[in-house]
Write a structure and sequence with these properties.
InterPro entries: Met_Synth_C/arc (IPR002629), UROD/MetE-like_sf (IPR038071)
Order of helices and strands: HHEHEEEEHEHEHEHHEHEEHEH
EC number: 2.1.1.14
Protein name: 5-methyltetrahydropteroyltriglutamate--homocysteine S-methyltransferase
Distance between the termini: 13 Å
Number of strands: 12
Strand order of the largest sheet: 1-6-8-9-10-11-12
Enzyme class: transferase
Organism: Virgibacillus kekensis
CATH architecture: Alpha-Beta Barrel
Radius of gyration: 20 Å
CATH topology: TIM Barrel
Strand content: 15-25%
Amino acid sequence: MTKTAETNVVRAPFKGDHVGSFLRPERLKEARAQKENGKITAEQLREIENEEITKLVEKQKEAGLQAITDGEFRRSWWHFDFLEGFDGVEGYTPEQGLQFTGVDTKKHGIKVTSKIGFSDHYMIDHFKFLKSIAGDAVAKFAIPSPNMLFFRADFEEGLYTSDEELFNDLIAAYQGVIQALYDEGCRYLQIDDTSWASFFSEEGRAALKEKGHNPEKLASLCARAINESIAKRPNDLLVTMHICRGNYKSTFMTSGSYEALSETIFGGLDVDGLFLEFDDERSGGFEPLRSVNRSDLYVVLGLITSKFSDLEDEELVKARIEEAAKYVPLEQLCLSPQCGFASTEEGNNLTEEQQWEKIRHVVKIAGDVWK
């Protein structure tokens, strides 16, 4: 992470960074089940969450991370839990869960029953607690993209007459919650977005057309949603975006290169950094990075997988960083796992110790490459 001497404004992610979610400890899983069964109160669960998050913050520091998160320990889902905090949005139980490769998630969804808005949001308190225990580390908070509500929610018929009208309300709600987080001291915000993956393959674009969308027009709307949501952010708020193709119990949802949308993602989003999946062949090569047209846009290469326990060959990772540097200057590159370790509370198929080995691997390699 770099800062300008004159303004002390954060301008880049850390060279060795991470996406944010961590495997839930057994104690936390048990407490959440007890709360669900009425054996403990919400207050008792919150105290256990506080204790486990405090331990997690210390483990992140011990592993060498300079930006720390709460691991999303208070969430069941990386996106639904947050989106339900907006006015007009509520959770419900659909007929089936989300479909991943070879597995479906548990049944949960969101629906929009009235106009979307922001009056307050319960996760602001989640960030306040993280900030209070961060110490000299940077407290990083991750929220789902506004596009995720558009792609994942069911809408009450007649509520919005056009996509543009819906996006206007979404943007206003996001501007409100981002400012509220900033007011509580947030200076590193990550926006998580799986919706872009719908545009990466012919199958994904065909599915959008079947739903009545024009992929080019929708991509433009999605870019507008990001850019206008963060347009009013203060200069010292770092905003990055994580683009994912799905992460549930070590499976994925989609495949496809960034090529189909490279000009929009690398040349049309006003974020400070992009966390990108590059851990296997599903993501394609680095060639789309040639569309990066800003010297202040940082690309965080997700070369270390969070899905499996085997550690990547260190020299191979360094060689891949060198390959990416053919398209983006090395000083604009960073390294991280390709996704979090637990996008949902179920988590990926590896142990907590294997998870920390991955994080230490990232920190070690980044320290070697960017000395």
